[in-house]
Each structure stands twice: as structure tokens, then as C-alpha cells.
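[step 3/7] fold_predict: job queued, chain A
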Amino acid sequence: MIKNKSLVYAALITVFILTCSCKQEKDSGWMPIFNGKDLKGWSPKFTGQEYGENYLNTFQAKDGRLIVSYDAYENFDNNFGHIFYQEKLSSYRLRLEYRFLGESVPGSPSWAFKNSGIKIQSPHPSELPLDQVFLTAVEAQILGGDDKTERFTGNVCTAGTHIVMNDSLITQHCTNSSYPAISDASWVKMEVEVHGSEKIIHKINGQVVMEYSKPQYDDTDEFARKLMENGRSRIISEGYIALQAEGHPIEFRNIELMKLDE
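[step 4/7] structure written:
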């Protein structure tokens, strides 16, 4: 009996070790891409500003957080901003945590209340026209709740682009997930999984909330047409990650990337 118990304990210990090893191996592919101390590896672009100009110190790094701050603003004045990660990517997983704080800056559009997002497969910021307002790329939309209306987060929105969902071309600007937007200032986990142009998945707090494929340029959009005239394929299979600044303070942390070998 004692011998049998020893065998059982040994088997349990082996299973535990293997389980831990598998989990460790699974997580080992993740790497932080924001150091929490400065904006190294990230570059901003604002409407009306040259690429690399951090207008009114909107993007800040503090205590492990990448902050979108409007403390220096008197009025928003359509200064839409994005901050781009330095590396072009095709197949990857990106995960982060976000939370909305405070109030929208005066002059920001009403739809920008607790509104941000992750742009996927974007053109490089140096390619953008100086006065471009909306970035021509697919967006994993981030919304916060207002305790008044029904809002969702993890949605997909398109600017100058279309997507395919359930074998149908989707041309409407935004398609909602079914995950309710969080109203308080708690941290929300978000992940975007991108397989080139073949499949894109959005997750909120570990739950799949959106899946689509074949992001593609809309030839009725002026900038999208220019990209295609300059040799870009209609179907978008690679590009840059960008976090948005649309008029409401938001913070990001634990920004990590896993490259997929496909």
C-alpha cells in the first residue's frame, strides 16, 4: 500500500511539473514592447503635426503605464493622435490592459467619450498626410461604459477599409461585439490575435468577442486609393500597431507581443 501511494504521489508530482513546464513554455513567447519608463520604440503622429512630434506631451510614460493625457490642452481642436510601435508585423498576438480615467477634453467630438482603439496592419506613420484625421486601417475598438446607454467593447471599426465576416464583405464603419463596456476605472484585459490577412480575433478578459478576415482597402477612400496606386495590395496582410488618442484620457499597461511563426 505504501509503495502504491508513493507511485501515486510520484505520478502527481510529474503531472504538476509537466503542467508548469507547458504553461511556462506557452508564456515564454511573450515579450514586453513598452518598458514603462519612456516611449522608446514608439512614435507619435498627430493631425497637422509632423511624424514624431508628441503634441502637447499627449503620450506619456509613468510608473509602468502608457498614458494619453490632455492636461496641457485648452481645446481638442481635432488633434487626433496615434502612437506607433516601431516594428512592421504580420502574424502576432498583442495583449495589454486599459482603463479610462477623467473627462473628455473640451472640444472633442461626442462620440470620442471613453473611446480609443488599437489600429492593426496600419501604414507607417511617415506615409501619412500631414493633415490626415483618421488612420486608414482596421481598428480593434476600445469603449468604456457611461451607465446610461448600451455600449460594447472589443468591437471592430474600419476607416478607409473593409473586412470579411461570415463570408460577407462588411462595409459599415463599426460592428459591435457582445461584451459590455466597463463603466468604472478598473483595468480591462484586451488581446488581438492577427494571422496576416487570414484571421483576426479580438479577446476581452480572455473571452473571444470578435473574429473576421481579409482586411482590405476601400477604393472609395482617397488615401486608400493612393496606397494602392503606390503598389499596395488591396488585401492588407502586414503593417504597424498603433494606439489611439481621440480626446478622452486613457491608460495602457502590460503591453506585450508574441510573434507567430507562420
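[step 5/7] annotate
Residues 1-31 form one domain.
The first strand starts at residue 31 and ends at 32.
exit 0
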